[in-house]
């Protein structure tokens, strides 16, 4: 009576009669040891289990594989021929397994990060130091661009993990808050605002020509959102592509700007810039990690996200609940 096939493969191709790789390994051990008991021990199973596996293979292929005798077990001529063929199959499987392992290792050892300039300059360095301690084998490439470009990179799968500072997200992204930041109005110490006793109102700030980042930057979009209810925005005095350039222009006396406190902290401490209090607008914002919707980060990206969301890794002025 024909036994039903338990092997994978389309019916009628012959693959339904091919034993699984583990059974082929066991058959070769029987050939090498001349004993079902010793073959089973080398394979990590009992002699009865070995006998049962051999009988299952014999039913599957349709002919005897092992001759059992008082002095041991030997392969039948057909079993010996099958074993010879099995060696080639197992060698090819080892090559396949090694290739899969190398591809996984390459993925695990490489991390592509895209981050907004504020995060890249002021937060990521210490996160990456911790990642290097936890995963010294991981090679990290970092692209520092504005938030819009970060989102494009993540959606195009040219970055494994992104960090943005804008108030809104593109469709198709999931996010997690990693820190909180606040925007501050800054001027040169010689600017009239540096000597005023009263805060600048949100409406006054909206009506002032500012030194700004480019429209697609997270800082610029966050400021636009904060001032949206306070009248028509004045045209920018200057539009510059980095916070460093904006700080330099303000320090040179070009005019006021609104930047991340992370970016101007050292300038405020040294007196190179002066902070101007602002009333009537919420200038706090959330800095977020982003990845494609439904694809929670794994491997090094997961570890970097874990490091970034640890509260003791946040800058002192940004600590607080991250929900």
UniProtKB/TrEMBL annotation:
Transcription is among the record's keywords: yes
UniProt keyword terms in alphabetical order: DNA-binding, Transcription, Transcription regulation
Biased composition range(s): Basic and acidic residues: 303-316
All residue ranges annotated as the HTH lysR-type domain in the record: 19-76
Region: Disordered, residue numbers: 291-323
The keyword 4Fe-4S appears for this protein: no
Family, as annotated: Belongs to the LysR transcriptional regulatory family.
Record-given protein name: LysR family transcriptional regulator
């Amino acid at each position: 009576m024909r036994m039903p096939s338990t092997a994978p493969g389309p019916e009628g191709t012959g693959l339904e009669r091919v034993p699984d790789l583990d059974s082929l390994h066991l058959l070769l051990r029987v050939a090498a040891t001349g004993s079902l008991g010793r073959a089973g021990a080398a394979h990590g199973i009992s002699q009865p289990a070995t006998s049962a596996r051999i009988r299952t293979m014999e039913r599957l292929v349709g002919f005897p594989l092992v001759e059992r005798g008082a002095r041991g077990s030997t392969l039948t001529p057909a079993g010996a021929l099958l074993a010879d063929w099995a060696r080639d199959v197992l060698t090819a499987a080892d090559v396949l397994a090694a290739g899969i392992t190398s591809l996984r290792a390459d993925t695990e050892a490489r991390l592509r990060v895209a981050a907004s300039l504020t995060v890249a300059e002021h937060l990521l360095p210490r996160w990456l130091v911790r990642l290097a301690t936890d995963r010294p084998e991981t090679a990290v490439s970092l692209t520092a661009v504005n938030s819009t470009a970060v989102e494009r990179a993540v959606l195009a799968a040219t970055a494994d993990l992104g960090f943005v500072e804008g108030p809104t997200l593109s469709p198709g992204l999931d996010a997690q808050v990693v820190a909180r930041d606040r925007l501050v109005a800054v001027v040169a110490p010689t600017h009239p605002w540096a000597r005023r006793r009263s805060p600048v109102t949100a409406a006054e700030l909206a009506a002032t020509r500012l030194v700004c980042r480019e429209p697609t930057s997270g800082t610029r979009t966050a400021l636009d959102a904060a001032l949206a209810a306070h009248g028509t925005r004045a045209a920018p005095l200057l539009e510059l592509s980095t916070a460093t350039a904006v700080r330099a222009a303000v320090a040179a006396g070009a005019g006021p700007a609104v930047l991340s406190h992370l970016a101007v902290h050292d300038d405020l401490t040294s007196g190179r810039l002066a902070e101007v209090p602002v009333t009537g607008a919420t200038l706090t914002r959330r800095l977020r990690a982003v990845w494609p919707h439904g694809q929670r980060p794994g491997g090094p990206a997961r570890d970097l996200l874990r490091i970034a969301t640890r509260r003791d890794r946040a800058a002192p002025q940004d600590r607080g609940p991250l929900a």
